[in-house]
């Protein structure tokens, strides 16, 4: 039963992306595609970790502009959805 459940979860998590693929066909530029993919990845990872995607995005997008993550990339580990403090 567990072996059937795992592929089903994976299929269900990519279903919205597959359905929306045609909608995103004209994202404007390769950077637009990369930005959409990054946000989609953050939202789905937040869901997988039991977080509210809206609250998670609000938190990281509100906090990260003031964080010197380019100088100290290890700081980003604190913002991952599976971090215990999130």
UniProtKB/TrEMBL annotation:
InterPro entries: IS66_C, Transposase-related, Transposase_IS66_central
Transposase IS66 C-terminal domain sequence ranges: 41-82
Pfam families: DDE_Tnp_IS66, DDE_Tnp_IS66_C
Domain of life: Bacteria
Residue span, Transposase IS66 central domain: 10-33
PANTHER family: BLL1576 PROTEIN (PTHR33678:SF1)
Protein name, as recorded: Transposase IS66 family protein
Species name: Sporomusa malonica
